[in-house]
Write a structure and sequence with these properties.
The protein is α/β, with parallel strands linked by helices. It has a domain of about 170 residues: 3-Layer(aba) Sandwich (Rossmann fold), CATH 3.40.50.1980. The chain has 9 helices and 8 strands. The radius of gyration is 19 Å and the shape is globular. The chain has a 4-stranded parallel sheet with strand order 2-1-3-4, with helices on both faces.
Length: about 290
Amino acid sequence: MKSFKKFSILLMALLLLGACQQPNNNTNFEDDKLKVVTSFTLLADLVIQIGQDYVSVYNLVPTGTDPHDYEPLPQDTKAATDADVLIYNGLNLEGGTSGWFFKLINSVKQNKSRVFEVSDGVEPMYLKAGQKDEQINPHAFLDPQVGIIMVNNILNILLEVDPDHEIQYRNNAFIYLEKLEAIHQQYQEKINALPENHRVFTASEHAFQYMTERYGLEHLYIWEIDTDEIGTPQQIRQLIDQLKMKQPPVLFLESNVQTKPMEQVSKETGIPIYPVKIYADEIGQKG
């Protein structure tokens, strides 16, 4: 159990590398900096970490809001109009080319050459049988190795649009990549040290597929993705039956989901919920 607790703490490290700065909460970009719009908080943090003093970042989907189905606000429209660069996750997180992000881009008639997907080069995984775009699991960024691809993509974006600060961007990216590589190594060590019967990761949503497949964990969940029906009696009963057979030491609860379904699972199985919530679609507030 002690080794599992250590892994539980480590599990949150990827999205808690620290947002030293925060994206704008208004549309007043700083004129002397590269104006960047990001689709959700994790991308905003990555751009800030790599761009630092040379970028002014406006983030669209705030912490606590679902990035799959977002309704842009008037200030979002202004930011998208004024931006030099617009960055989105891809892998259908924002609904693809018919989703809310591209509707926003099209509504302000932004130049498509300013729009970049940070999941370019990531091999998609699918939530269900078949390979339809709407069944892509968009949460690839929860795998530290995918995070490395995303950081390199953001670095290349910044180098393309602002080559004058190449040295600074490369130095910042190198520091961040070292942190991700260290997390990858720790994941391998900690998970390999777990007893076989403890290598079961349970959360509300099937968001952690990339991470669990990378490191040899079995991923149990209540629902596939939070755009589907969530927390139905059938979903809850199915997970309870699985957990009674598997008996993992702990359950995990995400920061932006309904708590009652997992609380019911915990009550009926006697398996505790880890006391700190984990992040799937966002990063936490500063501090």
